[in-house]
Design goal:
The chain is of the alpha/beta class and 333 residues long. The chain has 15 helices and 10 strands. Strands 1, 2, 3, 4, 5, 6, 7, 8, 9 and 10 form a 10-stranded mixed β-sheet that branches. The structure holds fe (iii) ion.
Length: 333
Amino acid sequence: MKKSILALSLLASFALAAEINIYSARHYDADTQLYKLFEAKTGIKVNATQAKGGELIKKLEVEGDSSVADLFITADAGNFYTAKKKGVLQSVKSQTLEKIVPAQYRDAEGYWFAISKRARIIAYDKRNFDPSIIKNYQDLTKPELKGKLLIRSATAGYNTSLLASIIESEGVDAASKWAKGTLANLARDPKGGDRDQAKAIFAGEGQVAVMNTYYIGLMLNSPKPEDVEVAKILGVIFPNQDNRGTHVNISGIALTKASKNKENAIKFMEFMVSPEAQKILAGINYEYPVNTAVEPSDTIKAFGKFKEDSTPLYKSVEKISEAVKIFDMAGWK
Ligand code: FE
């Protein structure tokens, strides 16, 4: 008898212990700090599973309704487009999220919301490159840049989302011209992440690279002196300032279809866009806050103000499959 009472009270305490389970593809220190802060504020325990965005989408698909995941966090809007299409997300109605996250940076039906932004800029070697020849993404195809351009693989979501935005704003022909022209100008086969392109500029392998802003912020503030040295020689060009604006991608959050702790999960989503959380994202990871009440870090502010792509991100991601095809046809790896 005693035993069964003990079992019952144990069960009750499990049921009462509020928790949420997050599948996250983000790989940043800021996130661990945010989980802890949320736990301290709400008493809701955060369990996080980390893997790559694509792997987590597959995991959610395979697990179906039995998945423990409540939330899916990843970088790159393209991942959210895929996850929504695969049916592993559910729509969220939240006045807080709708008020804070600008419409262009969230799904029109509430399937995902941005928590931070990063601009896909053109970095150049300040020691020896004249930036005046680059005003737009299309200028990366100029013959003057032959053998000077560095960029990571086309399979990286950051590049497919950029190309999708070119399709959306300039059309298929312009996009395929861009894919072919940039490929023709590469200093080496695409490899490594964005930071590796910066290192290659420093080493003199090329002079111009396509990069996300926060990687430069991270390198400038890195505990490793060699990273700081690399980042210091980089100049930043915000492309397309006289027309559609610079392509901005996001990190975001979505409620999973299988969520069993929906209310607390939505609480966490709202927490992530609160000024307190946004300050941490902006301060530790050098991303642009999605909440306009919060300022970017000084490092990022020093890059200057810029015009963001006015095409809604939820629209341009619909061109992702087309972008993949165009990269393939151009011979990108
Ligand atoms: Fe990244």
